[in-house]
Design goal:
With 251 residues, the chain is α/β, with parallel strands linked by helices. It has one domain: Carbamate kinase. 35% of the residues lie in helices and 19% in strands. The protein is built from nine helices and twelve strands. The strands form two sheets. It has an eight-stranded mixed beta sheet, with helices on both faces. A four-stranded mixed beta sheet has the order 5-4-7-8. A hairpin with a 3-residue loop joins strand 7 and strand 8. The C terminus is likely disordered. Bound molecules: Isopentenyl phosphate (IP8). Isopentenyl phosphate binds next to helix 3, helix 4 and helix 6. The site of Isopentenyl phosphate has 16 residues, from helix 3, helix 4 and helix 6.
């Protein structure tokens, strides 16, 4: 079983303070991940590392930069966060190794992402736990833009033909209008009112964009909060299940 799991930036960092790791949360996540029996690919978001520098340099998923200083600042910050997460996993005995998307991926002029997964696949086969992260990415005609962890998760899940996908975010799942966690989403229409169509263009982290992207996957996905990470790792589907194509029959 191959599982792709994203630890959201709001889970692993203190989003209010630039470049601040939430050490306690990272240690707790690492301890939960140490019990994984699946082949695990970990992706983490930018939190107060990548987003802080991206904002400062005016770079987004669509606004590019051809300033090498900006690229180094954003990528460097993400490498520091990645190092902290790899170290925390290593301290729990996980065979975690860093994989930096900036060195692998590219977008074409239309923004479509190419992410070769041979290296990650081989690392998994050799018993490693690859740890990727939101990053800057070469973008034809725009210099470099931001590549979000969510986009990486979707691309990795397809490229690796993952069996399960998990997004551990700052909220316990997708919330309905009354603030209750929605158990299961089979179509975007199920939650369109609660999430709002306007959010559909938010490709960097809005819940509507996450749900749309996960619905397009064949692997079933779960969106849950940090308290449910251990349950997800043990094979449960906590929080909100987003049933992709292969799971739409309710299996
Ligand atoms: O937090 C963004 O990743 P995300 C990464 O998953 C950067 O949206 C570099 C801002």
């Amino acid at each position: 079983m191959t599982t792709v799991l994203k630890l959201g930036g709001s889970v692993v960092t203190d989003k209010e303070a630039p470049e601040t790791v939430d050490e306690e949360a990272v240690a707790a996540a690492a301890s939960a991940l140490a019990d994984a029996t699946d082949d695990l690919v970990v992706v983490h978001g930018g939190g107060s590392f990548g987003h802080h520098h991206a904002d400062r340099h005016g770079v987004s998923t669509t606004e590019g930069t051809d300033d090498a200083v900006a690229v180094r600042d954003i990528h460097g910050a993400m490498k520091r966060l990645n190092g902290a997460i790899v170290d925390a996993l290593a301290a729990e005995g996980v065979a975690a190794v860093p994989v930096h998307p900036f060195s692998l991926a590219a977008r074409d002029e239309a923004g479509a992402l190419t992410l070769p997964t041979d290296g990650v696949q081989t690392l998994l086969g050799e018993g490693f736990t690859p740890v990727l992260h939101g990053d800057v990415v070469a973008h034809a005609g725009r210099g470099a833009t931001i590549l979000s962890g969510d986009e990486l998760v979707v691309s990795l899940a397809r490229g690796l033909d993952a069996d399960r996908v998990g997004l551990c975010s700052g909220v316990p799942g997708v919330l309905d209008e009354s603030g209750a966690v929605v158990d299961r989403i089979d179509a975007f229409a199920d939650v369109a009112d609660a999430l709002g169509e306007s959010d559909a263009t938010d490709v960097t982290g809005g819940m509507a964009a996450k749900v749309r992207a996960l619905l397009d996957l064949s692997a079933p996905a779960a969106i849950f909060g940090p308290d449910d990470l251990a349950a997800f790792v043990s094979g449960e589907r906590p929080g909100t299940v987003v049933a992709g194509g292969a799971d739409a029959d309710g299996s």
